[in-house]
Amino acid sequence: MAWFSALCDDDYEFLGVPDEALRSSWPHCRNIVLTADRYGYDNVLLPSGYNLGIDNTAFAAAVAPATEQIKLLLAIRMGELVAPQVVRQVASLQQIAGGRLAVNIISSDVPGQKLESQPRYRRSTELMYVIRELLDGRPVDFHGDFVDLEVDPPRIVDEISGCPAFYFGGLSPAARECAARGADVFLMWPDVPEAVAGVKADMDKRAAAFGRSLKYGWRSHVIVRETEDEARAAARRLLSRLDVEQGAAIRARSLDSKSTGVSRQAELREGADEEGYVSRHLWTGVGRARSGAGAAIVGDPDQVRDTILELAAVGMGAFILSGYPHAAECDLFARHVLPEIDHAKLEVATTPVVV
What we know:
- The protein has 355 residues and is of the alpha/beta class.
- It has helices at residues 26-39, 56-63, 83-96, 117-135, 173-182, 193-208, 228-239, 244-253, 260-270, 301-313, 326-336; strands spanning 2-4, 43-46, 71-77, 101-106, 140-143, 148-151, 166-169, 185-188, 215-224, 277-279, 282-283, 296-299, 318-322.
- The chain has a single domain, classed as TIM Barrel, CATH 3.20.20.
- Helix 5 crosses helix 6 (193-208).
- The longest helix is centred in the middle third of the chain and has 19 residues, at 117-135.
């Protein structure tokens, strides 16, 4: 069970209404991570965006010594760094964090440049292979379309226990191929259980074709209150000051605004009822003011717990959740739901998959 630190200026009391106190900053994001650590969450996602918020690698290095048990899921944008630099940074952070680091692979563009989807994911596949080889202590002699490299691992990899788990998400055929070849945990954005099960079945087949297996995770928002009526009222309040044009501008400025996954989130919104619910406890209103994961699990503690367990039953083993404001919802979920989640029913993916 993981939480989210709003490093990319994604924290609000009212969606789409900037709040200076909730902007991405060292004090604010540090408080979110320390809150999640204190409540016993397993992991926390540290997202990355070139234009938005503070740098997550620098943040991870600073916050790791201040935490006690929580793992740090560091997003790394494949288009922004060269492989040997990534390896040195990850190995150093792994040492600083005492082995509590995992990596969220983002198949990004180079800032200021644009690469079509298929070659962009091929580049990520090459980079993931090289990074894994070096972090596992093996020299690399690789000559691909995007990576041309002969190099030995840096000395610091001798002081860590191998490559951390790679989390990865994406719905396009090119993204799925990339994940099947190089990821450990395939992350999905919110969807109805039957669609989630269908994607998992497809990814199982793709990974098996390479002699591999994957674990699976779910990334969404959550709104939990003592009663379902209170939770739904909180959802309505969250959107109560959203300007439609401002919401569209927020979605458009994201670097993934035209991806297959974002398109699927839009389809869910279009198929929802007048309040934005695509099912009783899956609310798509969040997607009106952000790109990426655009839905929330909404309900009372038992309903939220049961929704998570329903998703676990179709193969989701890791849950990366968030809410607005992030620190406040982190507290609510921890008090009302987290103690009720039986970890024996989840496969929380914190170590690399053996392949």
